[in-house]
Amino acid sequence: MQNASEHAGALAITDARLLLLPVRSLTGHFKWVTCPAVLQRWQADCRRLGLPDGNDFSVTNLIENNKALVSQTLNEQDIFLEEFRFKTQPRPEIDKVIRSVAKLMGREGNEIDKALKSQLTVVNDNMFAHLARYATPVNAHIAIENETKTVKPGALWYEETLPADTLLYTGLVAQNSRKDGNKKADDVLKHVVDELFSDEHPYLQLGGNETVGMGWCCVKVLHRGN
After folding, report:
1. How far, in Å, CA of 52 to CA of 43, rounded?
2. Which residues form the CRISPR type III-associated protein domain (predicted)?
């Protein structure tokens, strides 16, 4: 945007919040895992942003450590997340959660509906906190001496990343430009969405290590009333 200082404060971007965490599973290649606290925060953010999709379900936070809430269409009696075994509890509200989050994934219809019904899993808050802390990829890195082609002394470090297919969401909140006669809030949002997140190239790179392919996200924009 030209003369950006004239539009300072016209757009606020919230923190990216975790909604679905992919976790390795022996009963499938992975499960999308979430918990009541995360879903309640999603509902609160939907209300604040004027999105209706997060408000038509209710998930209890009284889930036992060895239980997992799943879609009514899932036939598995037990599922495994990392080294943990869970007894499944099919619940109708999980199908409402699926309808709520499917639009965020940009793959509405039978494809994503089928995937979420087989993979979406709700565990209790404490178990989700454990998985979010210990079930993410940690990769070791080294640095090489150019002359000797051996590892530099002390050049060993580890990096933790979010796994591929993690679902995050963030809010864009616009207001009229402070300079009279300049862009209105709707124009600010339209400019950002059209320029950065077009249908032809809906991708955004976040964080470091872009040169090794890290941080690439596919962006799906939801508007009020979607």
Report:
1. 9
2. 6-217
List the Cα angle 52/50/223 in 5-degree steps: 85
Q: State whether residue 174 is helix, strand or coil.
A: strand
pTM of the entire structure?
0.84
Structurally, the chain folds into a number of domains equal to 1
Q: What does the pLDDT read at residue 23?
A: 97
**Band of the pLDDT at 3, cuts 50, 70, 90?**
low
For residue 223, is it within any domain?
Answer: no
Cα atoms in the 13 Å half-sphere on the side-chain side of 137: 12
Q: Is 185 inside a domain boundary?
A: no
Type of residue at 33: V
Q: Exposure string (b/e) for 131-164, b if CB count within 10 Å is 16 or more?
A: bbeebeeeeeeeeeeeeeeeeeeeeeeeeeebee
**Pair 17, 166: CB distance under 8 Å:** no
Across residues 6-17, what is the average pLDDT? 76
Per residue in 129-176, pLDDT (tens digit) is 999 999 999 988 888 888 888 888 888 888 889 999 999 999 888 777
Q: And the tokens for 6? A: 């004239």
Residue 77 lies in a domain: yes
Whole-angstrom Cα distance, residue 120 to residue 21? Answer: 10
Q: Which domain holds residue 34?
A: 20-135
